Amino acid sequence: MDFASMTFPLTVEISGDQYWIGEDGPYKLGMAATEFLASDGDGELREALSSFLRSFGGMLDPFVADGRASEEEVRSLQERTVGCAVGYGYYAVPGKIYLVERFTFTSLRDFLFVELGKAILNGNSPRQCRLCGRWFFHEKSDRTIYCDRVAPGETERTCREVGARAVFEKKIQDEEAWKIYKRAYKKYYARLMKGTMTQEEFKAWADEAAAERDKALGQLQRGNIGEVLTAEIFRELRERLNRK
Question: In the chain, where are the structural domains located?
Answer without folding.
Answer: 3-138, 159-241
